[in-house]
Amino acid sequence: MPSIDVLADRLSTYLDDDQVNLVRRAYFYAEQAHDGQRRRSGEAYVTHPLAVACILADMHMDHQSLMAAMLHDVIEDTGIAKEALDTQFGESVAELVDGVSKLTQMNFETKAEAQAENFQKMAMAMARDIRVILVKLADRLHNMRTLEVLSGEKRRRIAKETLEIYAPIANRLGMHSMRIEFEDLGFKAMHPMRAERIRTAVKRARGNRKEIVNKIEESILHCLAREGMEGEVSGREKHLYGIYQKMRGKRRAFNEIMDVYAFRIVVDKVDTCYRVLGAVHNLYKPLPGRFKDYIAIPKANGYQSLHTTLFGMHGVPIEIQIRTREMEELANNGIAAHWLYKSNEEDQPKGSHARARQWVKGVLEMQQRAGNSLEFIESVKIDLFPDEVYVFTPKGRIMELPKGSTAVDFAYAVHTDVGNTCIACRINRRLAPLSQALESGSTVEIVSAPGARPNPAWLNFVVTGKARTHIRHALKLQRRSESISLGERLLNKVLASFDSRIDKLSPERVQAVVAEYHQEVLEDLLEDIGLGNRMAYVVARRLLSDNGEALPSSEGPLAIRGTEGLVLSYAKCCTPIPGDPIVGHLSAGKGMVVHLDSCKNIGEIRHNPEKCIQLSWAKDVTGEFNVELRVELEHQRGLIALLAGSVNAADGNIEKISMDERDGRISVVQLVVSVHDRVHLARVIRKLRGLIGVIRITRARG
């Protein structure tokens, strides 16, 4: 472990003497604050913050980040307040330390919840100052390097958290070297035997490959010299966790992975990169479809390079990356590669710094929209995908999205309002399903409508955290407004029996009942009624009577329009349609479920006013309703086509069809048909009866 003097010497190569002295002062302050504290290994506790500062010094981070690294555990472990650090070292350093400090005062039901809350706090601190995440990553890296002193269970928990959150964050910020170390250390802690076996196999394979690697390297260098270009050529080693992931995810044998030879060519400028590409394509045949130009279109984390795969001597596949020195530095250290933190806020950050800020802004937006910390962390994990697709807006702007993204993900990436009002899309000028996965190079155009709302089915196929979070948020708001509206109608229906309405009651009485049910405002109580968590009958009794006298049942049935949305659903057991006699069952959390009056499933509670309510269909009811028909007919060729043709001729639509033979002559077909009402259903049945060989048609009624 280097001492503070050794670190100070290293810092003096790129920091002013005054700044180095501030870092020294932070070290001595931390040493005094942690006096008497020891790590599990038995070392003085201050060795940990010193090691974290050394990791940041390797990245050439600024003096405030190094000071925060020295002090990052002071608030949590020594009882020194943030205000004291503010007085001693200034507001910026105090804010950094506070951002990195873990949550300690709160008790959580599960470790997952604690982890999620901790990450939420860190996301908010990152939004104020991106250096928070760099100090946090360095802190986690040193903890991973010294994991062996912990118990097996704790080791595995920390390693899992690192692989799931910290390694992808390092990757998202373009910090390749740190990500590789996180993954290898995490893999070793999670699966020590597997890591050891792969490490041994790699060592053995490296010895066998040495001769071929040297030959390929020589031929590339000779090719560059012949073309008059200078460049550094080096063999690229595959890291243990990467090999393990490929073996597991792609079901490949170890030998298949090690048979690919990987090289990196580092040159002086961008122009030379493309010239080198032409030279190596002349040297060995390129593999079609394997060339990627990340210089023209950089990855989301700022990574730039040319990638190509060649057929080498004896048909050996060779993977080549070509980049400049600056790109090499950026690929390894990402946002920290050329850290120029501007104290002047007017200076706009550029390059990887700007991309990192953009990502953090998106994370913060998700945090504000998420229902709880666990939902937030799930969205962030989804958003940390390493692979991207690059698509274009109709005006030619490039959008980076995770692999597997759909047009809905694209719409939310453009703007939240575009996503919320999206109804269709055109991919390369052709209409396409919203669920279709996008491919790199496609041009995507979103068709939106002012009154449109997000569809719950979108949650089954969206990929990005932003889309998922905003859809959930919009559905919650939509569900709440629909629940309040239905709750108000249900309550007014019961109150109408007493010639009363909610707005006729005294505000004091209403507020007293709202408080009685432990709600803050009337809307919360109405939402509960609409969701079926409270019965309108019981609430009305409390509103109208202090003694809780029974109320007569309400006179007229409640009219259903079909536009009530998420809080009203139609029972699948009896599939009611407009025109049928119906009853509503209030189900906790689901709202109202509409059943046929004669449905057997609600027979026992049919006359309970707290569970069921009489319904009718409004004259202006709209929508399509599914109904199940059972058709018995003589077996004949083209049976399904005949049935489909008849339903279509009556303007119906078949949603589902299944068939079984009762004997060799008679077939029984189950049809789920979409209709508008009973009159429309009668028209469909009349068409089906007109078919030759139809014996009987019956409707399933629960």
UniProtKB/TrEMBL annotation:
The keyword Nucleus does not apply. It comes from the Bacteria. One of its GO terms (biological process) is response to starvation. Its EC number is 3.1.7.2. SUPFAM superfamilies: ACT-like, HD-domain/PDEase-like, Nucleotidyltransferase, TGS-like. Pathway: Purine metabolism; ppGpp biosynthesis; ppGpp from GDP: step 1/1. Residues 628-702 form the ACT domain. PROSITE patterns: ACT, HD, TGS. It catalyses: guanosine 3',5'-bis(diphosphate) + H2O = GDP + diphosphate + H(+). Residues 45-144 form the HD domain. The keyword Membrane does not apply. In eubacteria ppGpp (guanosine 3'-diphosphate 5'-diphosphate) is a mediator of the stringent response that coordinates a variety of cellular activities in response to changes in nutritional abundance. This is guanosine-3',5'-bis(diphosphate) 3'-diphosphatase. It comes from Pseudomonas guineae.
